[in-house]
Write a structure and sequence with these properties.
This protein has 563 residues and is α/β, with parallel strands linked by helices. It has 3 domains: 20-260, 3-Layer(aba) Sandwich (Rossmann fold), CATH 3.40.50.620; 272-342 and 473-562, Ribosomal Protein L25, Chain P (Beta Barrel); 346-462, Ribosomal Protein L25, Chain P (Beta Barrel). The protein contains 14 helices and 29 strands. The strands form 8 sheets. It has a 7-stranded mixed sheet. Strands 23-20-21-22-14-17-24 form a 7-stranded mixed sheet, with no helix packed on it. The longest helix is centred in the N-terminal third of the chain and has 17 residues, at 42-58. The protein is elongated. The two termini are 26 Å apart. The structure holds adenosine-5'-triphosphate (ATP) and magnesium ion. Residues 33-35, 43-44, 46-47, 67, 229-230, 262-263, 270-272 line the site of adenosine-5'-triphosphate.
Length: 563
């Protein structure tokens, strides 16, 4: 914690420098500007944590601004989902705002630019405009419409607004510099004609402003002091500044665009467009499928808001793009759930275990600790009887000395219960084991304080009492892709790398208390991993999603790197 106080990230350093140079602290203001064209993903969470984190650190307001300038892709459903996700992460915005609320102001400023000879209507089609733009080392060609009179430009622009022209037939362009080494300054487009209704402004507008003409001006209207975006916007910064130069008035806060590295995560894809394809093409069951890197998917998978915020802190704020290992995200959730998740027992791949010397028909209720990391979590009682289920993988007929689970003639402890010894097995006609028979040591009960109970045996197994067991559907999720960077190869479609085994569904035996789990309840199934009850659960018949296994691949990676 103290370390964190000491080292500022580079964005905080910029803010500190501004404050030191006299920028008034009370005028700090940030924003998170999602486009409501999809669900938020873990990359957005990074940006949310950054912006809202700065708000918390400096006691400054943070606006939620919907950047809604592409009506054909936007939907109020996404607006609601975005708000839900930000709240769930634990942040509260100051004002809820919409770039579309600024359309009139933007339009007035655009007319003003036309009147000052700084913008013109171009009648050429998009392909021609693109071709004339040239390349970074070759100047562009000026449009034949570039030097239209102010009157003609104004008249055409007003008629564009009125809906007199076809889509694609005209655009409004800023008149900057067709030979600028920065391609974004080669007379960028400010407005295009789109006869598409908007989710908020309805049919009012036939022209819509571009991102570049909207973003900085929205920041300025809201008096955002630091407008943080991802690195791909770095080359747009001179244009951001050029537009602000045209409208800036003395005495106002002049927003500053600064860029940080996008979050890229291994074994997943992150753009909304690609995530939308996974949904539309049926690779997953919706935006909140637990395999999706969306916030709603992670929530359903069992991630906690704390773990995502913690992950975002650990990733830090980088100046260069890099790929973050998904094991770090898994580390964060494991770390949190280890502290808060009650322990339970469940058997995913059951085989019958019969304790021959245990009385038939007897049930003992054994005391089991809910969470060794949290004594306040207390105890529960679990039933023990002569017939149990254990995991098939926890038994081997023939085992070497490194196998610390159950085998014939050797002892293991049953968690919270007794020490048992494997005796013999019963097989079906095909040679599959259908019963394992064992004997137990009645004096070895866990926590009973006898010398036998303190006897050290190598392995401990989880189990469920067969007559008391309830069943649950358990969804075992794995990575959605088989390679670290599914979209790295431009020759290949990322869907080629889908992991065919990203979801396995099993029927598990669970200890009886688990049958009453409510959607959203989280548990550690001992020795197996962390699980959350899914909204698909029915009373008495829960559905559990595996959030993450217990194996910490991240810590292992770190150790390897230190060697
Ligand atoms: P996508 O490419 O997934 O569609 P986007 O950038 O178009 O993302 P927006 O809704 O425009 O999505 O983004 C809102 C904010 O979130 C922007 O400030 C954007 O820079 C930031 N953001 C988006 N993706 C990431 C990411 N992977 N890492 C960090 N910030 C991100
Ligand atoms: Mg965007």
């Amino acid at each position: 914690m103290e370390d964190k106080e000491k080292s500022l990230n580079f964005i905080e350093q910029i803010i500190e420098d501004d404050l030191a140079a006299g920028f008034p602290r009370e005028k700090l203001r940030f924003r998170f500007p999602p486009e409501p064209n999809g669900y938020l993903h873990i990359g957005h969470a990074k940006s949310i944590c950054l912006n809202f984190g700065l708000g918390e650190k400096y006691g400054a307001p943070v606006n939620l601004r919907f950047d809604d300038t592409n009506p054909e892709k936007e939907d109020p459903e996404f607006v609601e989902a975005i708000k839900r996700d930000i709240r769930w992460l634990g942040f509260q915005w100051d004002k809820e705002l919409y770039a579309s609320d600024y359309f009139e102001q933007l339009y007035e400023w655009a007319e003003d630019l036309i009147k000052r000879g700084l913008a013109y209507v171009d009648d050429q089609p998009q392909e021609v405009i693109n071709a004339q733009r040239g390349t970074p080392d070759k100047p562009g060609i000026e449009s034949p419409y570039r030097n239209r009179s102010v009157e003609e430009n104004l008249d055409l622009f007003r008629r564009m607004r009125a809906g007199e022209f076809e889509e694609g037939s005209r655009v409004l362009r800023a008149k900057i510099d067709m030979s600028s080494p920065n391609m974004h300054l080669r007379d960028p487009i400010m407005y295009r004609i789109k006869k598409v209704p908007h989710h908020r402004t309805g049919d009012k507008w036939k022209i819509y402003p571009t991102y570049d003409w909207t973003h900085g001006q929205s920041d300025y209207i809201e008096q955002v002091s630091h407008s943080l975006c991802t690195l791909e916007f770095l080359p747009h910064r001179p244009l951001y500044d050029w537009f602000l130069d045209q409208i800036y008035e003395e005495g106002k806060v002049r927003p500053k665009q600064r860029e940080f590295a996008r979050l890229n995560l291994s074994y997943t894809v992150m753009s909304k467009r690609k995530l939308a394809r996974l949904v539309e093409e049926g690779y997953v069951n919706g935006w909140d499928d637990p395999r999706m890197p969306t916030i709603s998917g992670l929530r359903r998978r069992g991630y906690t808001p704390e773990s995502i915020r913690d992950f975002s802190d650990r990733v830090g704020v980088a100046k260069r793009d890099n790929l973050i290992d998904i094991a770090l995200l898994e580390f964060s959730i494991r770390d949190h759930l280890n502290k808060i998740a009650p322990r339970r027992m469940a058997v995913l791949n059951p085989v019958k275990l019969i304790i021959d010397n245990y009385p038939e028909g007897k049930t003992e209720w054994l005391k089991a600790e809910n969470n060794p990391e949290d004594p306040a979590a207390g105890y529960r009682e679990i039933p023990f009887s002569r017939e149990l289920y254990i995991e098939r993988e926890d038994f081997r007929e023939q085992a070497n000395r490194k196998f610390f689970r159950l085998t014939l003639g050797k002892e293991v402890r049953l968690k919270n219960a007794y020490i048992i010894k494997g005796e013999y097995v019963v097989k079906d006609d095909e040679g599959n084991i259908i019963e394992i028979h064992a004997t137990y040591d009645p004096l070895s009960k866990s926590g009973s304080g006898t010398p036998e109970s303190r006897r050290k045996v190598k392995g401990t197994l989880h189990w469920v009492s067969a007559p008391h067991a309830r069943t649950a559907e358990v969804r075992l999720y794995d990575r959605l892709f088989t390679v670290e960077q599914p979209d790295a190869d431009p020759e290949k479609d990322f869907t080629e790398f889908i992991n065919p085994d990203s979801l396995k569904t099993v029927t598990a035996y669970i200890e009886p208390s688990l049958a009453e789990a409510k959607p959203g309840d989280r548990f550690q199934f001992q020795r197996l991993g962390y699980f959350i009850a899914d909204p698909d659960s029915k009373p008495g018949r829960p559905v559990f999603n595996r959030t993450v296994t217990l194996k910490d691949t991240w810590a292992k990676l770190q150790k390897k790197q230190q060697k």
